[in-house]
Amino acid sequence: MNLQNRLIRVAVILAAIVTGGTIGYMLIEGWSFLDALYMTITTITTVGYDEVHPLSEVGKVFSIILIVGGVGGALYALTTVVGYFVEGQFGSTLGRRQMKNKIARLKDHFIICGYGRVGQEVARAFAGDGVPFVVIDSSQESIAQAEKDGYPHLLANATEDDVLKEAGIAKARGLVAAVGGDVDNTYITLSARGLRPDLFIAVRASDREAEVKLARAGADRIVSPYSIGARRLAMLALRPAVVDFIDTVAYGPGRDLKLENIAVSDSSPLAGTTVAATRQRTKVNILAISDKKGKLLANPTGEDTIEAGGRLIVIGTKEQLCTLEEGCRDS
């Protein structure tokens, strides 16, 4: 029985005891309603006041019965009410405060809006790579699942600016809008873009028309699970070994090699150097180079130059990638 049901049960028990005691004194002793009610309350609460009127023999026996049954009921009511506040309201308030403090400490994290099937898969991928994130969902059931999974969470509407602020959008690395409806994802994108013009935003879309609107709203990347699923099925049919390799490198547990997307800052020591020099220095394999405008150069030659403000798509061991990331930072 949950706390709310217990509280209702206590109210019924207390009402029955007080009513029975009051009626009993009125019938047995012939007292007025107020005198009978007063005597009943002082008896079950054991405050120790004198009787309002001398009791008859039958009245004394009735008082004994009321003390034995009523005091026990009153104690049960008291412990239940205390339990309600301690376990329910106080515990819930304390839990929310702890979660709020935990989210406030996050930085360079992702905000996952929506914890349905898509949002859960995104969260698992982030958790597997050790990427910090917070989940926002307006469904009690979804948030209960996020809590069970051990992820930071907010039970709120992600379309509201204040909610995104509470999720730490000012310090966030990016946002994933994976709510079931395209309308909500569009509002989330608009709100996030308004709060953080430089934030990376990836959004789920259900159809082509929604993709166009989400792009206008400011989404950086738009993904249709149906299109992605169809392309993956085609790749599995045509090139299964390639798909297995990518899955192993990108998602496999305990993998030795990792695919990474690394930004080159404007003052990075690597800016202006050749691909061959970077490969020799870090031992990583540079698969592609993306310039400031997002133009992608796949399989660059050793003579190609790494530009400041661009990105490198690389594959290597954890140690090699750490060396490369250090080189990409400001000098």
Number of discrete domains: 3
CATH architecture of the largest domain: 3-Layer(aba) Sandwich
Structural class: alpha/beta
What would you give as the CATH superfamily of the largest domain? NAD(P)-binding Rossmann-like Domain
Distance between the termini: 62 Å
Q: Note the total helix count.
A: 12
Order of helices and strands: HHHEHEHEHEHEHEHHEHEEEH
Q: Give the strand tally.
A: 10
Note down, in words, how this protein is organized:
- It is a single chain.
- With 331 residues, the chain is of the alpha/beta class.
- The chain has 3 domains: 3-102, Helix Hairpins (Orthogonal Bundle), CATH 1.10.287; 106-223, Rossmann fold (3-Layer(aba) Sandwich), CATH 3.40.50; 256-328, Alpha-Beta Plaits, CATH 3.30.70.1450.
- Helices cover 56% and strands 14% of the residues.
- The protein has 12 helices and 10 strands.
- The strands form 2 sheets. It has a 6-stranded parallel sheet with strand order 3-2-1-4-5-6, with helices on both faces.
- Helix 1 packs across helix 2 (33-44), helix 1 (3-29) runs antiparallel to helix 3 and helix 9 crosses helix 10.
- It is elongated and about 110 Å long.
- The mean pLDDT is 84.
